[in-house]
Amino acid sequence: MIAALGVAELKLLLRNRTAAALAVLMPLGAGAFFALNVEEPDSWPMVIALQLLFGFGFSVYVTVTTALTARRQDLYLKRLRTGAASDAVVLTGVLLPVVLLGLAQSLVLLGISLAAGAPVPERPELVLLALLGGTAMTCAAGVATSGLTGTAELAQITTAPFFFAMVAGVLPALAPDPDQRLLLLPGSGLGVLVREAWGGAGGQVGLAALSLAGWTAVGVALSLRFFRWDRRS
């Protein structure tokens, strides 16, 4: 049942040209541009962090918010709840293709960077942690934001604060010894993990993982509070 819902959601997503462009073309285009215009070898961690940021920000966060808002407003979610599927199955089926898309794009962009000359990460397990943590954080944030979004068109506005907060957290976290207070920002954990994976000092991995887990927990808590199945008036 989850697979059937996932296939149906993927078809709906690709049928919407605007949503498909935001979810597929923009992250891939921006990520490839960053990778193909690297001049200094030391800038690769920043490039890869920006690739992941755009992948998670657009492919997962914005797309989850837009998709859930659109499906709620056209009563698609409400109709699914009247069937045999539980609430958890419905949400998993709707979110699954978006999550897989975000992970697949991140892996493709990493492959483009390696092919363009990026060094192999010294600690690949931290890259995996960044992929899983970033996906979980942005997916939870998307579910929460959808509850505050009246229409799919408004998702471009309601997602802006959290997206820019991720940008503000990622870039300073790539410094050799960033202020630990920056880990309070949602994207900082992602930036630190990328930095450490490519030869960082290794002293803030635990705090970075805790930051991603904490923001994921916040997103889940807000989802339980604000997510709606019925159409907003």
TrEMBL record:
- The answer to whether the entry has keyword Cell membrane is no
Keywords assigned: Membrane, Transmembrane, Transmembrane helix
Span-the-membrane segments of this chain are 19-38, 44-68, 89-114, 126-145, 157-175, 205-227
Q: What is this protein called?
A: ABC transporter permease
List the lineage, top down: Bacteria, Bacillati, Actinomycetota, Actinomycetes, Pseudonocardiales
Give the species: Saccharothrix lopnurensis
Question: Superkingdom of the source?
Answer: Bacteria
Where does the signal sequence lie? none
